[in-house]
Each structure stands twice: as C-alpha cells, then as structure tokens.
Amino acid sequence: MSTGKPIARQPARNPKDSTGIFGHMKSTIAICATLLLLGGPLARGATGTMFQYVNEHGDPVFSYTLPSGQEERGYKVIDPVTGEVFKDVPPQLPPDQLAEKLRREQALKACRDELDRIYQLYGSETDIDYALQETLESLETRVGQLRTNLRQARRERDRLRAQAAEAERSGRGVSQGLAENLQRSRSQIANLEGEIAQREREQADTRARYAHERERFLDGTCPAPDALADARS
C-alpha cells in the first residue's frame, strides 16, 4: 500500500568525493606518508642508534651520521629514544702524545710482568742468593774448561812454531801441511780466547741481573706511568 509520502532518494556517490571509501584510503595514505617524512628519525631510532658529539664550533650535536673527521674528536653512540650510551669513543691523542702513552703503558706492563716472574721464581732472598751461586759456579766450570783447552792449544801452537823455525833454519822451508796446522792452531786459540771473554761477560751480567732481581723482590712495586716518563726525560 502506498502511504502517499514521497520516497527520499539517496544521492549517488561521486568517486571523487573524499567522504567515500576511496577518499578515506587516499587520506590514510597521505597521513602515513607525512608521518614517515616527519617521524623518520624517530622510527629509525626505535631500532637503530644515534651519534652524539661536539662539533668543531663546540656545539653539541645529535645525528644519525658522523661528519668527516669527527672520529678524531670523539663521539658517543646512544639510543635515540632512551638516551642510553652504547659506546663512548674518546678524542684521539696527537701522534706524539699517543706514542708516549703507549710507551708508558708498555713500560708499566713490562715492570709488572717482571715482578710476576720474580715472585714465581723466588720465595725469599735466600732463593735468589742460591740461584746466583749456582749460575756462577756453572759459568766458572765452563771457563775453567776453556782455559785448560786454551793452554793446550797454545802449547800445540808453540810446538808447531818451533818446527817451522827449525825447517827455515835448515833451509827446507815450511811445508804446506805444517803451515796449515799452524794456522788452524792460531784460529783455535782465537776462538777459545773469544769464548772465555764471552763467559766472563756473562758472569758480570749474571751478578748484575741477580742484584737487580733482589732489588725488585724487596721493593715489589712499579712506578706510575708518569714517573716512568719522567725517568726517561
């Protein structure tokens, strides 16, 4: 049945009308793009890191990149959301200061390593004295053997010299074999004399080394790095 009232017609949707479904999609896309452009750093910061540093003008800077040369001036790696510092890179020292710092650290390490070695070897001053005595006795035994060999070599050289002199006086001349034996004897004597001198130097070095180890054993400390540097200057 007809009520006699006119039926209201719904207006047809215009595809370009922003209130339609397509219009809502376009608006959503536009908003997302804007957020990405404006909030890009924040979005990256959620999963990435940020650099904090002081530029050449002395101003603090927060950035996702480091300018050229900033590594030498130092920087921090931080979480851009919480500000937590992941890494703190101090400014690099000039080459001369860096080399001096390394020398000090190496000298201190050498001193500590030496103390560790000394305390592992010796439990008392008596242990040091005993080790010194044993080493010197071993060297002296070796020197005694070398001196005995040297006396024998010199006697052999003198015998060969006498034979050579007798051959010259008799007019026969020195044979090639005798000359070679005489030369070997001289070389042997020179080698023995050199080895004896070396062992005697070792004896002196041994006394100095054990005296130093005794001193380090009693002292038991290493100078501070600054003191090590002052001692070299």
Describe the structure.
- It is a single chain.
- By secondary structure, this protein is of the alpha+beta class.
- It contains 6 helices and 4 strands.
- It has helices at 21-45, 70-73, 95-121, 125-169, 176-219, 225-232; strands spanning 50-54, 60-63, 75-78, 85-89.
- The protein has a 4-stranded antiparallel β-sheet.
- Helix 3 (95-121) packs across helix 6 (225-232) and helix 4 packs antiparallel against helix 5.
- The longest helix is centred in the middle third of the chain and has 45 residues, at 125-169.
SSE inventory with pairings:
Layout: H1 21-45, E1 50-54, E2 60-63, H2 70-73, E3 75-78, E4 85-89, H3 95-121, H4 125-169, H5 176-219, H6 225-232
Antiparallel strand pairs: 1-2, 1-3, 3-4
Helix pairs in contact: 3-6, 4-5
Distance linking N and C termini: 118 Å
Rg calc: 45 Å
Protein structure class: alpha+beta
* Number of discrete helical segments: 6
Helical amount = 55-70%
Percentage of β-strand residues: 5-15%
Q: Enumerate the strands of the largest sheet in spatial order, edge to edge or round the barrel.
A: 2-1-3-4
N-to-C SSE string, H for helix and E for strand: HEEHEEHHHH
Low-confidence runs: 15-19, 21-47, 228-233
Q: How many extended strands? A: 4
Describe the largest sheet: 4 strands, antiparallel
Keywords:
233 residues, 6 helices
